[in-house]
Amino acid sequence: MRWIRWQDVVSILFGSFILAAGFYHIHAQNNLAEGGFIGIALLVQQVFHISPSITTLLLDLPLIALGAKLLGKRLAYKTVLGAVSFSLFYALMEHYSPFQINLSQYLLPAAMAGGLTIGIGLGLILRCGGATGGDDILSLLLSRLSRMSVGKIYLIFDALVLVLSLVYLSWHQVIYTMVSVAVCAYTTDYVISYNKKTETAYA
């Protein structure tokens, strides 16, 4: 843990809190889906009634181990911090948050607000060389191999997961979720690159 600066710890924790708030208070409460492992976790919740706070950790563990081998222990430590803190914040909000943000009749503003919030949280975590879980590590690896931006890879991966979400969502909800994913991808790239090159964030 000596490799992790306290500034990075604060950024990861703050980013995880924003991320969990966006997923729970906007997406989950307004029946919007999500891409990546969160989208898979939401699908599992609909079918098996298992909290995303549990499913995401189970999905993350194998890729966190892979990331430690290929990208270094520093990223693995930060990913564990991001994954565990996200799951903890989500579980706490799920059980104790008194806030209800009902935008079910205004899905376009909900999608844009969700994408912006999630993109900020994710960008803060990735900016300091961290990750929230296995899908982040997968995106970082694919970004290095393909030279595509992290945000674009997220967009492609998320679109594939959203197709699966049609099992429990309508086309109407999926289309608005895709708007959220696009806003999230743009926001993530912006936050990562703001006054800081992406490459130095993962050095």
Please tell me about this protein's structure:
Keywords: Cell membrane, Membrane, Transmembrane, Transmembrane helix. Its main location: membrane. This is YitT family protein. It is a multi-pass membrane protein. The chain crosses the membrane at residues 9-27, 47-68, 75-93, 105-128, 149-168, 174-192. By secondary structure, this protein is mainly α. It has one domain (6-201). It is built from nine helices and no strands. The protein has helices at 6-27, 36-48, 52-70, 73-96, 107-127, 134-146, 150-164, 171-193, 198-201. α1 runs antiparallel to α5 (107-127) and α3 (52-70) packs across α6 (134-146). The longest helix is centred in the middle third of the chain and has 24 residues, at 73-96. The protein is globular, with a radius of gyration of 16 Å. The two termini are 16 Å apart. 48% of the residues are buried. Mean pLDDT is 83; it is low at 197-203.
Q: Termini distance? A: 16 Å
- The residue ranges in which pLDDT falls below 50 over 5 or more consecutive positions are 197-203
Question: Tell me, what's the shape?
Answer: globular
| Number of helices in the DSSP assignment | 9
Structural class: mainly alpha
Helix content: over 70%
| Main sheet attributes: strand count, strand direction, barrel closure | none
Q: Count structural domains.
A: 1
Cα gyration radius (Å): 16 Å
The pLDDT mean sits at: 83
Order of SSEs, N→C? HHHHHHHHH
Q: What is the quaternary state of this protein?
A: single chain
For the secondary structure, the number of strands is: 0
Percent in strands: under 5%
